[in-house]
Fold each of these.
Amino acid sequence: MSKQLDAARSSKQLQTDMHWKENIVYEIYVRSFNDSNGDGIGDLRGVLEKIDYIADLGVTAVWLSPIFDSPNRDYGYDVIDYRNIHPEYGTMEDFDELLQAFHERDIRLIMEIVPNHTSSDHPWFREALKGKDNPYRDYYIWRPGSEDGGPPNNWTSFLGDSSWKYHEETGEYYLHTYAWHQPDLNWENPKVREEICGAMDFWLEKGTDGFRIDTANVLSKDMRFPDTDETERIQGSGEPFYKNGPHIHGYLREMREKVFSRYPIFTMGESSQVELEDVEKYTLPERRELDLILMIEASKICDESNDMWQSKPWELRHMKDIMRKWLKDLHDEAWIGMYLSNHDHVRMVSYLGDDEEHREQSAKMLSVFLMTLRGTPNLLQGEELGMTNAHFFSTIDDIKEQQALAYYKLMVDERGEDPETILRRVLKKNRDHSRTPMQWTDEGGAGFTTGKPWQRINPNKSEINAAQQENDPDSVLNLYRRMIRLRRDHPVLTLGTYEPVLDDHEHIYAYLRENDEESWLVVLNFSRTATQVELPFDLRDRLTEADCAVCSDESKLQDLSRGSADLDAYAYFVFKLN
Ligand code: GLC
Ligand code: CA
């Protein structure tokens, strides 16, 4: 093991045997975080400039969105070199410096690895295109067309087109679970597994502290490629044949054995469509696969199942059901990562809170929620400021992310649907909402850039920015810092049991977090209006002399401790019980 790695290891402060559970992870979407050289694109030196801001948040780990060389059609999720930094983001020296700066502050650095597919510009794919007998051909998945010459089966990609693209010169189709320019790697090929393991090893040897593994549960496909019955489903209709596929556990165990087990790191698997048993298989420690699965359900609570671009209203009971499943019913030793938004979803305050009249209050309530749930919390940059969706997007040209653009094209150009309706859907949900530049100040470039930003800055930077919140003890930012501190000081908030209270209440979300030493009660009003709450009798006694660790309105404490109170919109209370 390298010297650097030893130094990194001894500087870690959360060196318990369950450190993956105790981390609080901050997602940095590098492109939109901070631009150090005025080209309008966030970069590694930009992250370095903000290192003290990140350390002051109190987070224990940072996950960097992909920074590898890439044509950026999917902003780094289309890799052309797993061992080199994209020049837009900086150099390897910048990276090494950043890694050291994080370690000096006891912050872990988690890299993103994209193992399911490469870019079609990756040298392996370019070789593969040269002919059926090229040694790289089998790095990807090729099949002849069906009898009528069309694609080998009826699956759709996550962008809604066929999962197969025809290559004229060699007369075969290749599989792409995502966009046509993201060909799927063939994980059945041991050489592919060796390449990806080698790349992961390269970053770990440098002393990085783990990976967010992109789309970790789709690597193994049913290689018979049967037709899907889910023909109503617009995106990803072949999913039943590759989610948690036949060899997935073997592949992950191989990664664990050959790579992860040699370093003091943790791994977070991104995955769509997992059930309790799947997460147990992936994360029970004795199975030696991943440390946690990132739980996607809360951020998809409004998505229609056959078309993720169509929304359904959500009710608090849906959220309670999701949490009961993942925080109470999941095996005690299995583990999830918890998030309400990331770079693939809209901003949490805009879909779970109220980003107009009650923006600040609802952003605070949601930060209390995220920081008091079981699981390893992941927060997205800007969430700590209560950053909102980009309501100023008004035309399709405002959108840069490929899934939204592909949907628009599919529905309008190919299926002849009403452009206005489709535009409305796309404006509501696109992934650029969470990718607008960080709002550091109220200046023209929001303190993000002195140049022309790659994506438009939200004009609400004048009310929502870090500089102003820094000086306001009651800001969302300062509450987030307190909540992070509280979670770190009281392991019960991470590891304790989760027990819902008032489960049938339509607007109040209350739960107990307990271990042998401590009991905590969290009471949240998820509604835009004032709401009456009556606490159960057994809790009233325990509340009489309880400490209110965090509360939105002290004048309600007396009523609450008597068991009944009228709580303001988005009120929040966190009690340490006797
Ligand atoms: C994951 C990433 C997303 C990306 C996709 C394809 O879902 O989070 O941003 O587009 O995988 O790699
Ligand atoms: Ca830059």
Amino acid sequence: MIITIDGPAGSGKSTVARLLAHRLGLRFLDTGAMYRAVALAVLRSHTNQHDAQAVSQIAAGCSIRFHDNRLLLNQQDVTSEIRMPEVATAASIVASNPAVRASLVQQQQQIGESGGLVTEGRDQGTVVFPHARHKYFLTASLDARTRRRLAELDQKGQPGSWEEIREQIRQRDERDEKRALAPMKPASDAVIVDTSELTVEQVVELLCRSVTPE
Ligand code: DC
């Protein structure tokens, strides 16, 4: 069984997808982490993120693997590094590159071939797994998502400014929604869940019930 969870940054999809996978005994796939890994390789090589050919070449040389909840880029553990704000912004930029998308979509579909999966991203229900059994699109207001991101940063001891984080998220939404290729949008058969006023546990419970109705 494949369950797709798409949505914007800070909608809670990562945490929800991980917990749902655990509850249902399925594997979990964080596709944003794959775009972040390519972005990190681009940043490390000091390549212009908008240079389509150079970025495609770097992506072609990237080996991306998940192992024990860690992300390995060319055998190196980059799990923490890919969470940096500059990597998030670069990921959103390199994600509009057709060669990068083609390569990552193929890898994601391969992962999906070997059994049950809860997968999260921006295009999982629309492009990567259009025949998934269950599709969800999580949303939340920009303010709610800013609040969550600030709390996350605070927990890591990296306090941020409300205006700065809100603007970063807003710009990323805009780029992810407006790109020509596989823009972020709900699949026509996705269930849309507004998580602004819900806790993570409430969202997981809601999805769990809808996947396995009594
Ligand atoms: O979910 P995230 O914040 O880790 O994703 C980082 C960026 O990667 C996001 O801004 C857009 C891109 N992305 C994408 O284009 N398609 C996906 N399936 C997942 C992420």
